[in-house]
């Protein structure tokens, strides 16, 4: 059973002040989770989580993560500027992008961010762009092929296709890159890889770590480079469906520690820092989209129309992703009605749920769409002139703070060049 982090009376009070739809985040949940992650990797003195800004680029949330000791992982000029405006600089920023324009390398360098190179050709481009190669530099690795975990008769626990992914360098390119970067003055090296997304397995990070640790030991032997950190990037998932089991972050940290002891320590590399760049895992369960049932329609199916739409949460429309829905105040009622829960976009994929068994919904009921705290608001758009909603923070003391106002039509018109 998925339980919302707010009660119906709390939500009704919030909705009096802030009209639905809105995104609501849970400060206590965010902090507890960040502390669990930190504890799971406490065995590694250099450990650092660089939160993937793209998942939730909202300063009111970033500040909580920064306060818990996280850095920020940025992938664009605007995300770098956002980090700068949050007062973050230097080694507290990781810059990981592809197809990077000159101005992004320039700002990343000016801020002192650690730059993670996606491609071999980025080396010369970086040197030309900023006139130097930073002493600390990282390269993104793509081993190609398919990445699988836990093969059984029922299939794979985790399967993804690095060989089809646009990111990262091949193994021979990685060696060449390290040699070249060293010759150009780099002194501290990092390795980064992102091989599978939204994994529900305590083995993903340990397996990835094993691959990267072995690669690091080889690279050190081949090139003599000092490898200072290994970045396991994102990809640790969350259970969107109520019958899925959550990852155990303590077990994940322990699995990475075992790989570290097995591979890095014997290679004389017991000083390597472990970095992560989690997005979803840090926030998805601690944010929800709150919307109200506004319409009912009975044709070939039973539809519930709500005041949110795919412009507020795109994952169901884009990936067919499951997001659990709680009808507030009816948590214990039997799920004996089958509905399609739909938004108002003129796009037939604008459906938060299809053939979902839910309690009987009445006009005006508040619906909580779970696990929208990451890749939720941030993927929003303005199609059909639907505007992005407000973002609210439920603080530890129970009060509510608006951390982003809802867009108004004036925001929508702001970029138009009228004749
Ligand atoms: C998106 C992204 C992440 C975060 O991914 P999650 O699935 O949210 O954990 C981390 N690193 C990079 C480079 C990314 O592009």
Could you describe the 3D structure shown?
The protein is 30% helix and 23% strand. It is α/β, with parallel strands linked by helices and 419 residues long. The chain folds into two domains: 8-22 and 285-413, Beta Barrel (Lyase, Ornithine Decarboxylase, Chain A, domain 1), CATH 2.40.37; 27-284, TIM Barrel (Alpha-Beta Barrel). The strands form three sheets. Strands 1, 12, 13, 14, 15, 16, 17, 18 and 19 form a nine-stranded mixed β-sheet that branches. Helix 2 (27-40) packs parallel to helix 9 (249-264) and helix 4 runs parallel beside helix 5 (102-111). It is globular and about 70 Å long.
Determine the CATH topology of the largest domain: TIM Barrel
State the shape: globular
The secondary structure category is alpha/beta
What gyration radius follows from the Cα positions, in whole Å? 23 Å
Looking at the overall shape, the CATH architecture of the largest domain is Alpha-Beta Barrel
Low-confidence stretches: none
Bound molecules: pyridoxal-5'-phosphate
What's the β-strand tally?
19
Query: How many structurally independent domains?
Result: 2
Beta content comes to 15-25%
CATH classification class of the largest domain: Alpha Beta
